[in-house]
Design brief:
This protein is an alpha+beta fold. 25% of the residues lie in helices and 25% in strands. Strand 2 and strand 3 form a beta hairpin. The structure holds zinc ion.
Length: 115
């Protein structure tokens, strides 16, 4: 079970404070904003969190806040990303299903990899 941090403001200063350059910074992340008091998730992803968050400054997936869960296990990251995707499908900007590795299946919808 992953534990996600409280949301941080999504700016370069905060990213540099939260993530060390010397770490791999692997894990899952969610990007979003507040509507009233509710955190609305508009993008979910995994990988090197610091690198990915910096990349999203340049695309439409940038938003006001991010939250993350450190994780080094590929399988765990994949499962978490699929759950995050399906849990938040209605508010996500990117509606493409996360890539499913060959010989794996999405734990939520059963989509198979390598096809
Ligand atoms: Zn799925």
């Amino acid at each position: 079970m992953s534990y996600f941090s409280d949301p941080y403001e999504y700016d370069h200063e905060t990213i540099n404070e939260v993530f060390d350059d010397n770490d791999d910074n692997l894990g899952n992340y969610r990007i979003g904003h507040y509507e009233d008091d509710e955190f609305v998730i508009t993008y979910v992803g995994k990988g090197n969190i610091k690198v990915r968050l910096n990349d999203h400054f340049k695309d439409e997936y940038h938003d006001d806040y991010f939250t993350f869960s450190p994780e080094e296990d590929d399988e765990e990251m994949f499962i978490q990303e699929c759950e995050d995707f399906h849990d938040n499908e209605s508010t996500l900007k990117n509606k493409n299903h996360p890539p499913v590795p060959k010989s794996k299946k999405c734990p939520v919808c059963g989509k198979e990899g390598g096809k």
